[in-house]
Write a structure and sequence with these properties.
With about 290 residues, the chain is of the alpha/beta class. The protein has a single domain (about 5-255), classed as Spore Coat Polysaccharide Biosynthesis Protein SpsA, Chain A (Alpha-Beta Complex), CATH 3.90.550. Helix content is about 35%, strand content about 25%. The protein is built from 11 helices and 13 strands. Strands 8-11-9-10-12 form a 5-stranded mixed beta barrel. A two-stranded antiparallel sheet has the order 2-3. Strand 2 (about 30) and strand 3 (about 35) form a beta hairpin. Helix 3 packs antiparallel against helix 4 and helix 10 packs across helix 11. It is globular, with a radius of gyration of 20 Å.
């Protein structure tokens, strides 16, 4: 049994990178093929052995809760039509794991959103998975981070090498190699320019925190954008309890970016046994028309 029993999914953002779609639909509910992004993330938690999920939402995002709830009218209609496969799918959403919700009333940043989870999490380690990042690896990254937390007895952050012109969109560490794909660091910077970035190792939307992160969040002053940045809180925590960076290479899609969303849709569809063969044939023919 995993030592990390709870996952927190911040899903309170406005989704401005995906307007106008996100004007009326929560960005976390935009589907990749036939599943909303947040379902992929909840399924990742379950695959990593986590069965208690807290979603931090905001006004106008009730569709997320509806998605994971029972919808008796739909179930009755599917049953009456003999659509047993579809019925099992929609019923299964309510049985994936224990899902709870708490609202971030004011948009004060990711650090603030994570801090709201303290009452639910209590004095235990927990995972954080960002609602834009879809990780298609059967929970391997998250399991590896949990194992590293158990070994190092501290917090763990996911790292991914990005192109220099992308680093300004992320937190970034000044790495100290430990072994293989593990790093310590003395400095972590929020959204540096390419010229100021200490490395190209970007902090990506997967974390395993000890409960000490909550004290660090309380001590964190508003930073970039006037918000409580989790990057700044991690920097404070690292001064008293070393944080480990866990680098990975594959499986991640930033579905808040339209181009990455399109890549996710195409690549995940190609992976599907039911859609992949026919879709790949279509793509070959379509690409041939572009030459």
């Amino acid at each position: 049994m995993t030592s990390v029993r709870t996952a927190v999914i911040p899903a309170a953002g406005l989704g401005t990178r995906f307007l106008p779609a996100s004007k009326a639909i929560p960005k976390e509910m935009v589907p990749v093929v036939d599943k909303p992004t947040i379902q992929y993330i909840v399924e990742e938690c379950v695959a990593a052995g986590i069965e208690d999920v807290l979603i931090i939402d905001s006004s106008g995002k009730s569709a997320i809760g509806d998605h994971f709830d029972r919808l008796m009218g739909l179930e009755a209609a599917l049953e009456a039509k003999g659509k047993t496969t579809e019925l099992e799918v929609v019923r299964g959403l309510a049985e994936l794991c224990d899902i709870h919700f708490v609202r971030q009333g004011v948009a004060l940043g990711l650090g603030h959103a994570i801090g709201i989870a303290e009452r639910h999490v209590g004095d235990e380690p927990f995972a954080v998975l960002l609602g834009d990042d879809v990780q298609v690896d059967g929970g391997a990254l998250l399991r590896g981070m949990i194992e590293t937390h158990e070994e190092q007895q501290g917090s763990v952050i996911a790292l991914l090498e990005v192109e220099p012109d992308e680093i300004s969109s992320y937190g970034c560490i000044d790495p100290i190699p430990i072994r293989d794909n593990l790093y310590g660091f003395e400095r972590i910077v929020e959204k540096p320019s390419a010229e100021e970035a200490p490395s190209n190792l970007a902090v990506i939307g997967r974390y395993v925190f000890t409960p000490d992160i909550f004290d660090a969040i309380r001590q964190t002053e508003p930073g970039v954008g006037g918000e409580i940045q989790i990057t700044d809180a991690i920097g404070l925590l690292n001064q008293t309890q070393p944080v480990t960076g866990f680098s990975f290479k594959e499986g991640r899609y930033d579905c808040g970016k339209p181009l990455d969303y399109l890549k996710a849709t195409v690549e995940i569809a190609c992976m599907r046994d039911d859609l992949g063969p026919a879709f790949k044939d279509y793509l070959k023919g379509f690409v041939a028309t572009l030459d």
